[in-house]
Amino acid sequence: MTQSETDGGVLLSVLDTAPIVEGSSASQALQNTVDLAAHADALGYHRYWVPEHHSMRGVASAAPAVLVGRLAEVTRSIRVGSGGVLLPNHSPLIIAEQFGTLEAFHPGRIDLGLGRALGGPSRAASAIRPTGSDQKSFAEQLRELLGYFDEREPEPGTVTAVPAAGNRPQPWILGTSPASAELAAIAGLPYAVAHHLNPDCGELLQVYREAFQPSVGLATPRSLMSVSVIAADSDARAEWLAGSSRLKILSRLKGSRIRLPTPEDAASVHYTSEERDTVDHHTRGLIVGASQTVRQKLDALIKQFDPGEIMVTTPIFHHDDRRGSYELVAEIGRDAQ
């Protein structure tokens, strides 16, 4: 793996949900994200994305446009963006104005990742998307949004997104379904597949490549794959750190949504064989281990699916351990050059 955009190697990037771990707060989670973004910039990661989630006790990243602006201020060269803004939740005009403004302040560094999910539990649907609102299709909303970034002179009487015209961030389509892959391909946009949410969706990259139609902004397909990785100085230590994520998943499957627990608490929990099999299935895409183990598993993913970029998300309780995991992954990337 390498981190050059020009030598055909695989880039390394970061996806950060700003996790609120057990005993912490949203404020601390956001401060950790600011710190991690600056650290990732210094380590040489290519881009840093934050998502849009609503009414989720364990996630502080709810307003990506605001958070992206803060992250752009504390970093120097890394690209920053949304992973992603959930387009059906918003007016395309407002998104264009927000991200056009960000691009104006930080030219050439802003990404606009776009998804179609709700971004929260079903009970929050009416608060996120008010009933009775005019709902266009995702494709219609996408065309409207991208149109606001055009530099050409608007026709009289049309609505314009003044900060957006001529200040276009790099749009991406996010997804885990053939429909999202085909939409990105037909629109001639980059595509991000969420392996960390669905480890069986890697084949969508081939669907995307086969259907891709060149556009003004993108002549050839560009893709990334988001992957969950927990790296430590030994396989045993990494597995211990991963216990937090496994316990959180088990609790969710039992109907209890908890914040990420400490690895100490997770280590004290006894799993039945059935529970362990279930959790193993739901974490089958999670890459856990020391540097050599992580390198081998990432290389296998790259060989199988050929993404242009690996975007790493790391569900670890202690912030220092999380920083350390990203340091090890960055080292893996440098060693591969």
From TrEMBL:
Residue span(s) of domain Luciferase-like: 23-301
InterPro entries cross-referenced by the UniProt entry: Bact_Lucif_Oxidored, CmoO-like, Luciferase-like_dom, Luciferase-like_sf
GO cellular component, one term: cytosol
Coiled-coil residues: none
GO molecular function: oxidoreductase activity, acting on paired donors, with incorporation or reduction of molecular oxygen
TM region(s), chain numbering: none
Pfam families attached to this UniProt entry: Bac_luciferase (PF00296)
Matches recorded under PANTHER family: LUCIFERASE-LIKE MONOOXYGENASE
Family to which this protein belongs: To bacterial alkanal monooxygenase alpha and beta chains.
Protein name: LLM class flavin-dependent oxidoreductase
Classification lineage: Bacteria, Bacillati, Actinomycetota, Actinomycetes, Pseudonocardiales
